[in-house]
Amino acid sequence: MMMILKRKEVLIGSLIMLILVAAFINYNYSDVPMTELASTQNVSEQQGETSEAPDSQSAKKMGEAQYVSSNAAQIDISYFTQARLDKENARSKSKEMYEQIIANTNVDEESRKAAQQSLLNLAGASDKEAMCENLIKAKGFSECVVFINENSASVTVKSEKLSASDVAKIQEIVSSQTGILIKNIKIVEVK
């Protein structure tokens, strides 16, 4: 009887030590603290009452949302509709530019191949964004828009208050569909 009790104590003690060692290793070798992984930003706090027009530098970045103010004189368009329109306009311009490079006979073969690859990457990113958006909506969010760059992604979701489990769900969906590391996925909340 005494021998069985000691074995159980040794086993439990060993398991506790393994858990502590794993937690210590995870804490020391993690690039991003856990609090940053679950952090979100509230767009309404960032924008204030009115939004300024983006400068020419930020407007040149493909796939980034441009914030618009909502005045009574303007057409009432939701943030998500506007973001999708901006994303599609940027994609159309990029696609057009790549197609012109490919069709131009004065461009060298290496530049053409690079343009073709960029065009394929653009189409792939568009497909991945649509897949992520559909899966996030399937998880119960009424609206969302996803922007994928080379090594990062931004997800904007309509929510009153995102919980840590909601953030984890969204990060898992985007990471599994795109291969982007969770630490490079930014989630923005819109009310």
What does this structure look like?
The model is unreliable at 32-76 (pLDDT under 50). Helix 5 (79-103) packs antiparallel against helix 6 and helix 6 (109-138) packs antiparallel against helix 7. The chain has 191 residues and is of the alpha/beta class. It is built from seven helices and four strands, in the order H-H-E-H-H-H-H-E-E-H-E. It has helices spanning 2-29, 34-37, 43-47, 56-59, 79-103, 109-138, 164-178, and strands spanning 41-42, 144-148, 153-158, 185-190. A four-stranded mixed sheet has the order 1-4-3-2, with helices on both faces.
Alpha plus pi helix count: 7
Q: How much is the average pLDDT?
A: 75
> Strands of the largest sheet, in order across it?
1-4-3-2
- Separation, N- and C-terminal Cα atoms: 62 Å
Question: Short description, anyone?
Answer:
Helices cover 58% and strands 10% of the residues. It has 191 residues and is of the alpha/beta class. Helix 5 packs antiparallel against helix 6 and helix 6 packs antiparallel against helix 7.
